[in-house]
Amino acid sequence: MKSLLKLIFVLLLISTSLYAQQDPNIFNKFESKFYTIDGYKINVELKGSGDPIFFLPGGPGNSHDYMQGNFGQYYKTNTVVFFDFLGRGKSDDAKDASEYSVENDVELIEKLRVLLKFDKISIVGHSYGTVPAQAYSIKYPDNVDKMVLINGFHSGAMWQANCDSYNHYAKTHFPEKWKKVDSLRALGYVSSDKELAKVYGNFPTKYIYYHNTKLKQNSPKYKHRGWANDVYVAIIGRDGDFDVSGSMIKQDYRKQLKDVKAKTLIIAGRYDGVSTPEFAVQYKTFMPQAQFVMFEQSAHNPYLEEPEKFYKLFDTFIKE
After folding, report:
1. Three-state DSSP state, 316
2. Hey, which end of the chain has fewer CB within 10 Å, N or C?
3. Separation of alpha carbons 269 and 275, rounded Å
C-alpha cells in the first residue's frame, strides 16, 4: 500500500510539473507562412493536427508570440493557429490607421478560417483578444465550436470602467507619481503622447500580477515587434487610458451573449486590475450558459500565476 501511495504521489508531482512547464524553445517549432488578405501579408503560424484552435492575443497591439509561448504545446493534441492581426507582429501595416478596428479583426478571423479550409474552429482569447472572439461567435455562430475567454471584456463600457478603476488605484496608491500625471494632463497631454505615456507606463504592475510582479511571459529570443502602439491608439482612442473611444467604445455584447451557441469557458482573476472582478462576474448574468471560473490567487494572467489549476481546467474543457 505504501508503495502504491508513493507511486501516486510521484505521478501527481510529475503531472503538476508538466502543467506548470513552459517550453522556451516552443517558438522554434513553428514557421511563419504569409497569406495575402485584402492586399496585406498576414503572418500565420500553424502546427499539429486535430480540431483547430485559433489563439487571439491581447492589446490591442500585441503580437501572437506570448500566446504561442503559453499555448504552443497544444499542437500535440490539436491544430493550433497563431497569427498576427493587421499592423501587429510580422503582419503588414495598414495603409490607413482607420483600418485598425475590432470589426476588421473579426473579419480577418473569418477570412483565415476560409483560407485554411476549416469547417468549425475553437477560439481562445486573452484580454483584448476576448473582444473579437465574442464578436466573431455572435456574428458567425455556426463556425465556432468552443470559446475560452481569459480575463476579458464584454463591452466598451467595461473597458472604460476598468480604466477608471486602475486610475483610481494608481492615484490613491502612488500619489507622488500621480502628481506628474495630473500636471501633464493639465497641460493638455493625452495618453498617446510620449511624455505622458512615459510617466503613466512607469507605475508598478501589481494590477497585472497578484503575488509576483517579476513574472514574465514566455517570449522568443529573436527580435520581434511585440507591441504596436498605433494599433492600440486607433482601436482604444488617443486618450484611451482615460477616455476610451475608437471602435472599442462601440462594442457591447451583453444582450447577445445569452444566445451564443459555442460552448464557453470564462476565466477571471480575483486581483485583476485590468478586467476587474466587479465587471467580470457580470458574465454570470449575461452568459448563464457558460462555465465561469474565478482564479482566487491571480490577477490578469492566471496561466502564469496559477498554472497547475489553469491548465488542468483548460485541458478538460478543450478535450470534452
Report:
1. helix
2. N
3. 8
For residue 29, give the DSSP letter. Answer: G
**Cβ atoms of residues 161 and 186 within 8 Å:** no
Confidence class for position 8, pLDDT limits 50, 70, 90:
very low
DSSP state of 211: S
258 is written with which cell numbers? 445569452
Residues 162-221 pLDDT 10s: 999 999 999 999 999 999 999 999 999 999 999 999 999 888 777 788 888 888 888 898
Question: Do 112 and 81 contact (CB within 8 A), yes or no?
Answer: yes
Please provide the size of the chain in residues. 320
Domain 25-319, CATH = 3.40.50.1820
Is residue 308 within 8 A of residue 16, CB to CB? The reply is yes
Taken in order 291, 66, 83, 15, is the CA torsion positive or negative?
A: negative
| Distance (Å, whole) CA 230 – CA 246 | 12
Give the cell for residue 23.
Answer: 517550453
Helix (H, G, I), strand (E, B) or coil at 125: strand
- C-alpha cell of 147? 470559446
In this structure, the dihedral spanned by the alpha carbons of residues 82, 86, 92 and 97, taken in order and rounded to 10 degrees, is: -160
Answering whether pTM is above 0.90, one says: yes
Could you state, in order of their start, the residue ranges of all structural domains in the chain? 25-319
Given a contact cutoff of 8 angstroms between Cβ atoms, the answer to whether 208 and 300 are in contact is yes
